[in-house]
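= Paired protein data =
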Amino acid sequence: MRYRNRLLIILALVAALAAVQGTATLGAATGRYISVEIEVFAPWGFLGLGTWQPLSESLQRYSTFSLPAEEANAVGEAVVRIASVNPSAWPQVLLSGDPRGHAWVYGINPELGTAYRLRVINNTPARVGVVVEIDGLNTLGSDWIAQTSDDRMWILAPQGAMVISGWQVSSQEALEFRFGVPSHTHSPLIERRGQITAYAYLEAERAGERATEAGAVIDQPVRYVDFSPLTERAVETISIRYGAGNAYLGVGCSETSGTGIRVDSVDPGSPAELYGLRPDDVITYVNTVPVSSCQQLSDLLAARHSGDRIVLKLHREGQSFLVAVELGD
């Protein structure tokens, strides 16, 4: 018994050391308001023990989008108000405020079937509402995502964090996250498979609606708090694509006041550069589907794989033409 206890103590110490080392080296898909980290479970092969190891996440695309004028003014004022609480704690944001929305797309290459969990971090010194979508379903209740402030959301404390490892189907039950092929995912939305997205909402000064406060881990009891989103649309989205191939175009974009989206930047060596896309090009169609936002382009690419071909309708210097592009990874 004495030797068995010593063995268990040694194993516990090793597990704790590995967990600390893993946490210290975590990478994150980092945005302006929130960050998202992904860890996979690496079993040791006995007693069900193992450690959570971070996945390497690579930035594939960053873009901005316009908010309605009234909401943009409110966001700009909110950024100044929040940053003034503790400027040193939020170095990403200038005190002048930023009325735009931000969208980040990251890619990872996990082994299918692996269990994983998410750590979502509030980068700001104020409360933030976060909707976490996996394969098209809300992790709170498994509802379909509307991509509006009507979606059920977690509330993160100032510079707080939460860890979730499954879809919360009740206050006492969660279904485990696993990177899976369509037949193995909890989500029936096959066309949305392969993407994890977090939507961040700033809080209006006067709260009044009900939302779910995030505990440290998903199996803690949840409690409901008052929280009023400042905008109808999330002020930031962070998407992490894990689908086979991680189809990659390689452009940064912004929304226009008219039809289509503007190419702000073209990644060196990307399919976009190879097939002749340039900054200031305007993309109006992808495979006959009209495109009006950077998020829509991201969603269309998320349903594709490396090696797929898409046809873009481009507008450049008063001329329009079609370009066929083979997506990379």
In short: Residues 1-26, 216-220 have pLDDT under 50 and may be disordered. The chain has four helices and 22 strands. Helices lie at 2-24, 69-85, 271-274, 294-302.
